[in-house]
Design goal:
Number of domains: 2
Order of helices and strands: HHHHHHH
Radius of gyration: 23 Å
Oligomer: single chain
Shape: elongated
Largest sheet: none
Number of helices: 7
Number of strands: 0
């Protein structure tokens, strides 16, 4: 009787994900690989942009032309090396979703509209700026002219900040997920 009550109180998405756990594990792994690949491609492109002469290595020599060329070439390489595989993965995920019978989607009540969320993305940019300022201070470049920084230093700092952010949010998330899995597996 308690098992029936637990099933009734669980959300439809939770039961659906539990039923299709292998597919969702593949989707999560693909997302993690895509994000890591995007960061790696950007770091690779930055190094090559300087060594091939696409952009000057110090920021004080950059012009609007350099900025525009850097952005356009960066977008091109991200699309070619990451965007195309992600697009193919998205098509595969969509085809998988379309193969699920409508009766199963109704059984888990998956056709309902999601909740509306507020626009909370405005706090991210100031937090990354603060993290960048901390990184510059730790490196001892607080009183150095920005024009003397190399592009590798700025991109490396950004990647370091992303790693800090991932560690700050990922470690508690992993602890919570492990706790939840242990808690769920101990249930009768």
């Amino acid at each position: 009787m308690t098992e029936q009550i637990n099933v009734d109180t669980e959300s439809g998405w939770k039961r659906f994900i539990r039923k299709h756990a292998a597919a969702f594990a593949i989707f999560i792994a693909a997302i993690v690989l895509a994000v890591a690949g995007a960061v790696y491609v950007f770091a690779w492109f930055t190094g090559n942009a300087q060594s091939t002469g696409l952009v000057p290595s110090t920021l004080n020599l950059w012009s609007m032309n350099s900025v525009l060329l850097f952005i356009l070439h960066g977008i091109f390489w991200e699309l070619v090396l990451i965007g195309i595989p992600v697009g193919i993965g998205g098509v595969i995920a969509w085809l998988w979703w379309k193969r699920i019978p409508e009766a199963e989607k109704r059984e888990y009540n998956l056709s309902g509209k999601g909740s509306k969320s507020s626009r909370a993305g405005g706090a991210i940019s100031p937090l990354f700026f603060i993290a960048f300022a901390i990184k510059v201070y730790i490196d001892g470049n607080w009183n150095q002219a920005i024009a003397s920084w190399s592009l590798d230093y700025v991109v490396g700092s950004m990647i370091t900040i992303l790693i800090w952010t991932a560690a700050i949010f990922a470690i508690p998330a992993i602890v919570g997920i492990v706790w939840w899995i242990r808690h769920e597996t101990k249930k009768p």
